[in-house]
Amino acid sequence: MHGIKTNLLTTGARAIAASATAVIGLVCTATAPAGAATTALNAAFPLDTPVLVTDVRKAIGEAGTGGTLRPALEAIYDQCSPIVVVVRVAVDAAQDTMTIGSAGDYTGLYALLAAESVTGFRPRVIGAPALDSQAVTTALATVAGKLRATVYAPADGDTVAEAVTYRANFSARELMLIWPNWSNDFAGDAVARALGLRAKIDEETGWHKTISNVGVNGVTGVSQSLFFDIQDPTTDVAALNDAQITTLVRSPAGGFIYWGNRTTSDEPLFAFESATRTSQILQDEIAAGLIWAADKPLTAFLVKDVIETINARIRSLVVQQRLIGGRAWFDPALNDQADLAAGKLVIDYEFTPAAPLEGLELNQRITDRYYADLSAQLAA
């Protein structure tokens, strides 16, 4: 060649984009009067099919007059208007069977697993308000683990003791139990509003903030009378929180709030809702942000670029105060010559999530020391 040739080089770290976390997966029932109304409902929300809702207000008008879809959407809309993936299930005497559906056929709540391929959005906050029996909640937790999502469900029982006993049935880090209900007519109101509030917090504050101690819209009271004192560790509310159950209270600052930060995790590292969600989001963002590296020649330059891509994202999240810290590195002990030659690379990364300030301890002292200057003040 007689002249100048320019080569386009594509080395260096890449930016990792934030993932959409405020996407609700709603499992529900819906009915309408026979005739044109039923036809319209079936067209808008066919059974066992993920349906993308981008306008919650409009969807409320299409949700029929019976079942759980309409009141759930209304409770969500009171908080914000997020993206919702709706899976409508049939109304049946064996409701648990209809709601759970089949994993093999992607029916019932298992249709949420197919939501991303059908709608382009992965549900990250899921629930089945008023349909969430123990069997349904267990299945939802399984699906949430596959989606890296968070489930909100009720702790069954008429008393604090019964709710605490029910809590012992679960050990999933993806599940947060709530008890009792808001005093609205809809049996799944507390769960539906938790879904909407979680999406609102994600949009306005971030996924690193727990659902606790944030005002809930559209609420007039709590369905059960509970003793709550922010300074007393022996109250009903404290007993529920000690059992990893999020409860509902009238805030000392006014309005109504969820009170509790804990999942049902049997692993203490994921006890906080924020720790679980931070782990989930990091997994998805880093994996998606490294697709460009797949199938490229495995050289030292590529390894460095992968590590720097992860570290750049971690630094960004630390600056945003979503992480306390973290780093990625190459460990030679995990990457022997044979594995590298076979195209296998292992990169370690660690992170410290931002824990909620769950317990604030204040030391009060009484003293006479401030009388020491009284004489001087009077003389002046």
Short descriptors:
12 strands, two-stranded antiparallel ribbon, alpha/beta
Task: Give an account of the 3D structure.
- This protein is of the alpha/beta class and about 375 residues long.
- It folds into two domains: about 25-275; about 300-380, no CATH class.
- The chain contains 13 helices and twelve strands.
- The chain has an eight-stranded mixed β-sheet, sandwiched between helices. Strands 2-4 form a two-stranded antiparallel sheet. A two-stranded antiparallel ribbon has the order 11-12.
- The protein is globular and about 85 Å long.
- The mean pLDDT is about 95.
Going across the major beta sheet, what is the strand order?
A: 3-5-1-6-7-8-9-10
- The oligomeric status of these chains comes to single chain
The biggest sheet, with number of strands, parallel, antiparallel or mixed sense and barrel status, is: 8 strands, mixed
* Shape annotation: globular
Question: How do you describe this structure in short?
Answer:
The chain has helices at 36-44, 56-61, 69-79, 95-100, 115-119, 134-147, 160-167, 189-204, 236-242, 273-289, 300-319, 337-341, 374-379, and strands at 23-28, 30-31, 51-53, 66-67, 83-88, 125-127, 150-154, 175-178, 245-250, 256-259, 323-330, 347-353.
